[in-house]
Amino acid sequence: MKNGFVSYLRVSTERQGASGLGIDAQRSAIRRYVELCGGEIAAELVEVESGKRSDRPVLEEAISLCRRKKATLLVAKLDRLSRTVSFMSRLIETGVDFVAVDNPHANKLMIHVLSAFAEHERDLIGERTRVALAAAKSRGARLGNPDIAAARAQARLSIQSAADDFCANVGPLILQIRGSGIHSLQGIADALAARGIRTARGGAWHPATVRNVERRFRQHGADLRNDM
Description:
Residues 4-140 form the Resolvase/invertase-type recombinase catalytic domain. The chain is α/β, with parallel strands linked by helices.
């Protein structure tokens, strides 16, 4: 089947699946990609399951369908397949072609690296949550009924911490790109995109985004690396 695709959509909760939140965005991204390729979607499968789990019956069905139809498995984002390196390794070993629309030119090595980064990020978030809850509990906080203002303050701190980690990881890459002779912000944005690196929110790079990350890294680079 020439340019045939099996579309795989995944959300993490039943609530998301019922409401359509997340699914529509994935479907739109996949359809745009297929239109550009001049292909067609042979089937669309939707799974409601956490990216951490390895038992994914709908994904297994999608892989089987790709084999029968000699089609390519298509997802909107790499993390829709899995956030664990071991699962991605098993998927690569099946021999089924697959494409992530957010990074369509990624090779096997890049997929392993991006999967490792996603798994590490997931583990960091989980560990921070456990530490924060344990600290709150030791102070006598009521974990089941948090104060709204305190919860918002904690959320802001979590967001700030995630931004710091991102700058600490991407900042050196920006300096490396500059060292290679690329100095314009747009040129750096293009170079990051070519490496398959997305912004902290998973979006495309723009000159302003590059400037903000580089400025923060140059101002606080040493502190950011020490905090990791």
